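Help: read this over?
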Amino acid sequence: GDNADQSLGTLKDGIDLLKIHLTKNGIRSGSKVLICLGNTTSFCKYFFALWEIGACIVPVSSLATELEIRFIIEQVNPALVVYLDGKEVFMKNDFDEKLSHSLILFTSGSSGRPKGVCLSREALFKKMITYRDNLPVHHFSRTLCMLPLNFGHGLITNFLFPIFMNQQVVLAPSSRMDIYSSLGKIIDDYSITCFSSVPSIFKIANSFG
């Protein structure tokens, strides 16, 4: 992805600067922030800046339609919407100091309308501990994340868990045929030790040999 060569130092500097910018603009613990950025460096910076602030992060698919995004905004009432690799729209919605959610993940329900699943920081940490106690962490030493980061398994298992365990993550853009067709080369070039996906992607990758 666009962050393949980002050093941890460069990324941390960007997170620190972004955190200052966000707090100056009123984002604080209890603020809800919708980020529609895909698997990018910008997503990483916003996610961890907001995480350190204590805001509630609402990742949304970069492929979401305008109708879907408007529906989610109406449901969440965010203080900020971020899209197009960092374009910001600050809203007039206030923060909720009693808000216990750290993440709201939207999935498409049977009704066709996105449904939000709320996760507290405590619940997320419990999930990380369960993973750590039941999965060999060294297998995640270089994890390829090609699932979208608004998707629970992509965000939590392929992205957050390796990072919280001090392992490396290689981000690949999601929903890109050229990524699927060159999956074997990516695994070799980046010395990938772990990745997971959905059956349809494995079927596409296998068709390219």
In short: The radius of gyration is 17 Å. The beta strands are 32-36, 56-59, 80-83, 87-90, 101-108, 114-120, 142-145, 168-171, 194-195. Residues 147 and 154 are 5 Å apart (CA to CA).
